[in-house]
Sequence to fold (365 residues):
Amino acid sequence: MSKSITVSYGGAPCYDILLEQDFQALTAQLQKAGLHSGKKACIVTDENLARLHLEELKRAVTPYFSRISQFIFPAGEESKHLDTVQALYQALIEGHFDRHDLLIAFGGGVVGDLTGFAAATYLRGIDFIQIPTSLLSQVDSSIGGKTGVDFSQYKNMVGAFYQPRLVYMNLSLLQTLPKEQFLCGMGEVLKHGLIRSGEYFSWLREKGAQILSLHPETLEEMIYQSCLIKRAVVERDPKEAGERALLNFGHTIGHAIEKLSNFGLFHGQCVAIGMAAACQISCEAGSLSKEERQSVLAALQQFDLPVTVEGLSADEILAVSKSDKKMNAGKVRFILLTSIGNAVINPDLTDAEILDGIRSVLHTG
Fold:
């Protein structure tokens, strides 16, 4: 099993996404991407991945590079900040890394975002590749060149658009992913169907049992279809000037919940709650039927994703939503559904309308 997708930037081919079941094709793909042997490479990863899979990756790439080093940091969103980036800069400087060398982001979304930002800013730009290991990073954060870190618990407030040279997925690593983290990735997968393909959304519901049992061929097809949707959006709008904002469906309220929970909930769980709230707002606005809203909630629950949160107030969530980086001229650019498979940007929601959506996901029992 193997699939590939080419992502263009500015109208020209930019990098390939490879879906593989191991690391055997990695060195050939490095060469195809123009990343010639003899460079130094630094593998950036977190403690969990280092313990489970770092040696396997090093065995695959060591013959290709003149020297392999590693930078390992504590796992979790708590490490996604400028102090970690600064420590990575220090390691690269002390390792005499120059613009001809390479960073390898090996991990989930936190690793990929942080490594990409470091690559964009170290020596004003150094090559990097993405080897995403979580479902969420494979279908979302590794594609499109958005990099960044959190600032004082405000998500991704410091960042850059910077494209990888290659995205290489070893899908077999999903078999060792904790179940809860795999399910969190399904929030982003379902989002792709909800904003762009009702047919894909229906397929996900139909194939739910195979997906939950981690059936390799089904997972490969699912990830491939999600990557195709993400590619189509980012190619048309590489720097989020318009259509790309649709990928933020569920994220405005989701990010606020994530921050207010002190990152006690996973990103995918918060996005799922945010999507449930956005569906309620869409329904109240008359653009989404009650039956479609129920179908979305059922799909989220089918994959064990939460649709409510407890211990937070609607006013708090709204206030934090207004500090989101997606604000435009003081207004929240909210993503709503007109139907399953079709999303629109609405910059004109009132606070009362947003609060109604937030209250619909607050658990009061």
